[in-house]
Amino acid sequence: MNIVAYCRVSTNKEDQLNSLETQKTFFEEYARKNNYNLIKIYADEGISGTKTKNRKEFLKMMNDSEKKLFEMVVVKDISRYARNAVDFLQSIRALKLNGVACHFVNSNLTSQDSEMILGTLALVAQEESANTSRRIKMSKKINAEKGRVPNIVYGYDKTKGDFYNLTINQKEAEVIRRIFKTYIDEGYGANRIALSLNQEDIKTKRNCNWSQNAICRILANQIYIGKIINCKQEVEDFLTGNRTQKDEDDWVVVEREELRIIDDETFQKAAEIMAERNAAFSLNKTRQSNKHLFSTLIKCPVCGYSYRQRVRTYKNTYTDWVCSKRYTKTTDTGRCSNSVMIYEHELIAEIEKYFAGLLKNKPNVINNIVTKFNKLYSTTDDNAVKEKKLKDKLVKLSRTRVKCMEMYTDEAISRQEMRSRMSELNNQIDKISAELTLVEYNMNKGQALEGILKNAFKNIENITSLESMSNAQLKKIIDKIVVNPDGNVDIHLKLYNDIGLDETLLITDNRTSRYNRKT
Hints:
Layout: E1 2-8, H1 14-33, E2 37-44, H2 56-66, E3 72-75, H3 78-81, H4 85-97, E4 101-104, E5 109-110, H5 115-145, E6 156-159, E7 162-168, H6 170-184, H7 190-199, H8 212-220, E8 227-230, E9 233-235, E10 243-245, E11 252-255, H9 264-281, E12 298-299, E13 307-314, E14 316-323, E15 342-343, H10 344-360, H11 362-377, H12 380-409, H13 415-461, H14 471-475, E16 478-483, E17 488-493, H15 494-499, E18 513-516
Parallel strand pairs: 1-2, 1-3, 3-4, 12-16
Antiparallel strand pairs: 4-5, 6-7, 8-11, 9-10, 13-14, 14-15, 16-17, 17-18
Helix pairs in contact: 6-9, 7-8, 11-13, 12-13
């Protein structure tokens, strides 16, 4: 018999990994004694047993079972297989459907034994996991109340003999003070600070390069003013691992003045600047610059980088925009070949002209958009009819699937025939579900179309002068401006993305606004 084995350890500590090696040796000896052909050992290291979706080797084993690569799975103990009773029973049933048995050696049980017995043992393993989770929570709470810090923090060293306590690392503390100073006094952004530190080969605590997010975490971490804050989150369900944010009143805050690196006033000022920038320029997990009118709006299609502003003075002052990758002093992957530059005053004039044309032809423009939209998505009534038909089909298929399982249980059809029918039914259900999702999406888009159009034209009508606008205001109207190597500059309205149409869709003449800027 071709068999495989599955083993798991829940942490990647050295003693646990040694346990994994012991389990592997056990299975090799087991196969030899029983004259089985052990073709593979699936082993998950440092993974919890409460969620099968996180166990890559386990999922690979389940996929391989569908390919008929083996006839039996050997597991040392039920707790090594899964600590989630639902996942345990579902996977056992899935193996049965694939013609694969499962043998739990320590309890001498197989997947052919009573599900009640197997399920009870799985519940015992699950409860053991729940008890472990409760002990960990209690331990964390005790450490939090003592003001201990379990993680590694830049600016501090772990105290020898007491992993949870810290002492200030004076060299790193100077870097912390520098980060706050350049952010507040010199107006540097988090990304620029990170680049500066990387250029000087200053590494993080884990010997990695600095990132924008790492700098932001430092600027927001109250440990630098001597406050240890724990218990901000808690695991809502140990089976899913989902975390929930706790009320601020439930946080555990301990004053540790000996850990202070930054004074309160400096920390508060940095927090205010960060809040202002986030509110004004809608920073949503992606780096954005807002310093100039066209910051991060002008894109190079060759390298994907944004254009940057360049101010030059020769008799008069000239402001133009160039590809940042072409005109940056040092780049890791070489300079961009796109040499097209745009004069700012020409671009402003062209955009104002474009907006004026949109407003002048507003009725025709809106009618054109609605026509294109309906061709792509169909009308709301059509989608409603499609939605009902698709839902009815899903109900019928679900009933047929239940009937098929009942026929197999009553031995009216064979396992092979049941599997064949179920596979076909599942494929049909998946296909119809995907189609239903698209129809529902189209219906939602159709209902929002009027409001999106109204808001888009309102933003354009409120423009008095493009030069007086902020970068954030312009980004509400323009999605991007693409500068091609042939000198053509395409202006793409944000309106297209908002209603799900192709961004190069024709509004006035079957193209986005385009003008030519010679190299």
